[in-house]
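# nightly structure sweep
# worker-07 picked up a monomer target from the shared queue
# config: single-sequence mode, recycle default, output format = structure tokens
# input follows
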Amino acid sequence: MPALVDTTIRLLGQEPLAGRVPTAEILRLAEILDGAGFAYLEVSGGGCFDSAVKRGVESPWERIRMIKGRTTTPLGLALRGKFLVGDRPVDNDFARRFVACAAENGIDVFRLNDPLNDVSNLRDAAEAIAEAGRELEAGLVYSAGKSGETEVLVDQARRMAELGAARILLHDPTGALLGHRSFELTERIREATSLPVGIYCQGASGAALSTTLAAERAGADLLACTLFPLALTRVPPFPSFQCHCLFPLGCVHVLEVQAALARSVGQRLDAAVEEIAPAVEHHVLDPLRDRALGYELADRLGGGDVGPGLEALA
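# output follows
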């Protein structure tokens, strides 16, 4: 049965949602998510550090420490290859010190990827993660065009396996990856690297759920997701949908006990959502609706037509 990774806390800590949910609510949400059965919680990344520094209100390290003190689920951090969490490349010494600091503050899993899949840009950080004794998940970025051809990605996945990665994560940042391609790539990467394969979908195409489920059918053992109602504003698929979709699939190729686990996880997620949804809706969706309604009224007063996105929000 594939495991789920939640990205809700990271998304709430970066633009355009940074600062909308108070830290006290973030910590309460972390405690709820801790009991939902996720493989790990991705709680920070480059966007979170960037937002924290620009806002100057809270240390990103302090937030990680506070979440760690309230949870037992492993915590994850997303890194941008040689750039780590910044917009400039760093040297080997800085990468080692940063990774060691992240591990000391409570990070257990590092999701490491380079936008151009340049494996050489991952090497320093990968070595630092190994030295810190933490888990490395190497991200393989998918994009349309020649860089997204199967043989190119499979070759890069083989090189990533040499970095000591525990898993290859198929990462779709633009919504360009469709179900038939995710199925094919998951199968080929598993065969070529002999490593587990996970999938992380985002982007504006609306195909994240179908793409993720296709990868699961091909053997992906780790699926990234975001909890409702945040999934209405961002695109990693909603985990309760995943669990309810995986259950009938499990009847075909998963042992009965694992299928029962899928049902159990789905129930725990539903319970978590009942507690989380009001807080996220109040701090995230309500301001978006208010802003959209203001745009709509101004547009109508000016005699223009209202866009379908604003109508949906208002």
